[in-house]
Amino acid sequence: MAAELILAPEAAQDIEEAYGWYELQRTGLGEEFLSCVDACIQAIRRTPEMFAKVRKDYRRGLVRRFPYATFYEYADDVVTVYCVFHTARDPKKWRSRLP
Prior knowledge:
5-stranded mixed β-sheet; 5 strands; 29% strand; alpha+beta; 3 helices; YaeB-like fold; single chain
């Protein structure tokens, strides 16, 4: 059974901004990005402990085909996604988002 999902508002904004950028690059590319992010999040929900811990109890799932990582916490059968960041960004930015 898949874990419950909580998507932080900041993570939703990350996804929205990246979607807009990819759509400007090529029509339909934003939709492909959303599909890949959704696949990553669903994989996290199915097997949340499969992904490596990157800081304390926080884990990272990589988005296929796009240079993005999903940072989340898994506790009490709940996955909380805090951010979806481009992998070339300064790691201090995603670390600052984690509670």
